[in-house]
Amino acid sequence: MLDIKFIREHKEIVEAGAKKKRMDFDVAKLIKVDDKRKEILLSVEKKRTEQNEFSRQIAVCSNNDERIQLISEMKILKEELQKEEEDLKKVMKQWQVLMLAVPNIPDISVPEGGSDADNVEVRVWGEKPSFSFQPKSHIDLMTEKKMVDFERGAKVAGFRGYYLKGDGALLMFALWQYVTDFFMNRGGFTPIIAPSHLQREAFLGTGYLPQGEEDLYKTQDDTYFSGTAEVPVMAYYSDQTLEVSEFPIKLFAFSPCFRREAGSHGKDTKGLMRVHEFYKFEQVVLCEASHETSVALHEEITAHAEALMQSLSIPYHVVANCGGDLGLGQVKKYDIEAWVPSENNYRETHSASYFHDFQTRRLNIRYKDSSGKLRFAHSLNSTALALPRVLIQLVENNQQADGSITVPEPLRKYLGGRSQL
What we know:
By secondary structure, the protein is an alpha+beta fold. The protein is built from twelve helices and 16 strands. The two termini are 49 Å apart. The model has no long low-confidence stretch (mean pLDDT 95).
């Protein structure tokens, strides 16, 4: 959420930001509603002051006729006040809906473009494997080796259901242990296991509602299942005033995740690329309200994710997401896309974003700066590892002519020393 004062003073910048993000938002409409809100609020506050004054006068009035007159006048004022308070509630509801829809302003370095097809390659790492045979897809590789069962998964769990079993399950466990050790050894991260079944306020605070409701699973008691640990971890600090000495707060978060993939109907309907239920390790960072600090930490958390992929020898490239491929609150975003031999293409494995104070304003996460002034913190997040998606690139890039899969060296100790699956 942006500050209404900032929006009013920088209307053109907000409009340009919405345009760059390809989001339809009427800034003039918000300002008009805000004018009405301020007008009614001023009148309400004035009438409340007058009502208090009437109460004071009535309490000390000794003349019965004057007292009756004061009570009569206060009754009229009270009726007018009640009507204006109802009007204020209606205007405030409209104002809040519009405020929640204001897109954050993208950084000047964000490329122009309308979709992920316009994202710009920043760097490339690793050599794509050269095969003397036609590489198989992860679906064929893992099915043949009884590492996954999509047929029974669909029968039991429905569309996009799956079972990982045998070496597939062991490889998943190995990655869980490895990514945890990897980030704990990098220092500065506090591990946290977060809930995925959450109240609506957590999604509003992080910007996933109201715009992204179609992609969330909703329960009968109006709670939701989250698609990333970012949501519960950010909400963990809601309505708190933090100490500046704590910054940066770096959390290595894990949670089960759920997504309906409603906006991806017809895409990747087979395999592990888009599943409804998965697991995710996430980097979540809170820092002081400094653009320079946010930019530096954004590069840092992206570098962590890249270092993990490099340690697994999975070739990838990094792209800077264009304006049209940014979410409501993101200032800038990088995607790491790893090579998929069977598709002869890069596919996303990680995303790293920073938000300035967009989320912390919604969640009311503040701190006192060195001068004692209360400020909203800045927030960032990045995938550490999303599973089982990364199994696609891992098994495909390490497949051998005989159908076996070479285990990346860092994972072997978690698989009893095995070098092949």
